[in-house]
Amino acid sequence: MAAEVGKKYVIIGNGVAGTTCAQTLRKNDPACDIWLVTNEPYPLYNRVSLPRFLQGVLTEQKVMIRDFAWHEEQRIRLLTETLATRVDTAERVMYLSKGGPLRYDALLVATGGWANPLRVPGAEGVAHIYNFVTLDDTKELIARALESKTAVTSGGSFIAYELTEGFNVRGVHVTWLMRGPYWLRTTLDAEGGRLVDEIATRHGVEVIHGEEIREVVPANGVPSYVVTSTGRHVQSDVIGVGLGLTLNHAFLNDTPIARESGVLTDEYMATNVPGVYAAGDLAEFFDPVIGRHHTMGTWDNAIAHGRVAAVNMAGGHEPYVDVPTYTSPLFDTNIAVMGIAESNNPDLTAVWRLAPGDKGNKDYRKFFFKGNRLVGSVFIGSPKGRKKVVELIRTGLKCATPAEREALFEVR
Ligand SMILES: Cc1cc2nc3c(=O)[nH]c(=O)nc-3n(C[C@H](O)[C@H](O)[C@H](O)COP(=O)(O)OP(=O)(O)OC[C@H]3O[C@@H](n4cnc5c(N)ncnc54)[C@H](O)[C@@H]3O)c2cc1C
Fold first, then answer.
1. Can you give the pLDDT at residue 3?
2. What is the reported pTM?
């Protein structure tokens, strides 16, 4: 690789935020020096495709987005299986688990989150209990699903749903436990939750609310059954754990970089420490659309963060102003979450409706408002009108009267 002169950029995390940042830096500055560091063994792969890989719909090859040759061509120095361990922000030096320290002019932290493990009696040291975040998790899940008859999944958010559907499609009988009264309880309401239960049950999944795994009872080092919080015994050859993420910023503990649940940034993805930026799932960014900081665990958001961070690391001044969207299949239907959709947020009000949809399915729609301003929405069922609603959120539509709010249900 030819020696470069120019600014030196270090990016920690080669997910879609970090890799997009590297790609944008290279495009805008042919002479700069770019280091991309990851603890994983792979170049960028598509996490959003992992559920379809688990189901057997996609091959591993289709999940990969970049290869090592691409990094060579782009003159991006990719360090795999290397952990960022410590940063000295005064000296602008990044320390790694192997290899020498890296000096930087600008640093991007895009380390996402690691899945919370199942911490209950009986779980420690027992095989066949899986999280679902990485390509390696998925390979192990596939191998185990092929040999299992029963599964228990635990959690009330997207990952637990993806695990449930993955096992279900592989012909494993799944019992889905969630502590809350319904799935996605920070976004939906009882009626939307019931609709999701109906869909899952129709596909043969047993859905149990208000219960979580209290104990794993193993036999020969693998799960035999789980005991739930109400004392119910559920047989389980394999356990899928979707209990949220802990964002990866512990390696910044010795720095003055401001953090809450994520790494705090302004709308330019800059932290409070000069030369240090954050992007993707990890960034708790200032969102001018709602006037406060928040994190957003979506693929498109991570891409946009990576691009904007690159522009600003290289001396630009571009804010990140976007309407994040999360779209996902939901068994044989779809869900889309757009903008800020938080049922438990006291600053927001909401209206929702369940209506007959296409092909005998039901359509659930919910709209969220901050004051009179439309800030978010959820669709389950037909996605018709989704793009128009995103545009209405982007342009800050005001709905002062109940009639104006009701009119949103007609947007198609
Ligand atoms: C199974 C699954 C399904 C999903 N489905 C959807 C979907 O349908 N739609 C959607 O919008 N989003 C979906 N998401 C979320 C989406 O994938 C994430 O929002 C996105 O990948 C975040 O990208 P990122 O670059 O911020 O972080 P990540 O992709 O998490 O990348 C961070 C990388 O940094 C590495 N790292 C962490 N700490 C260190 C360290 N100290 N040193 C070196 N490397 C480190 C990590 O191992 C990882 O490789 C899904 C996620 C999963 C897991």
1. 44
2. 0.95
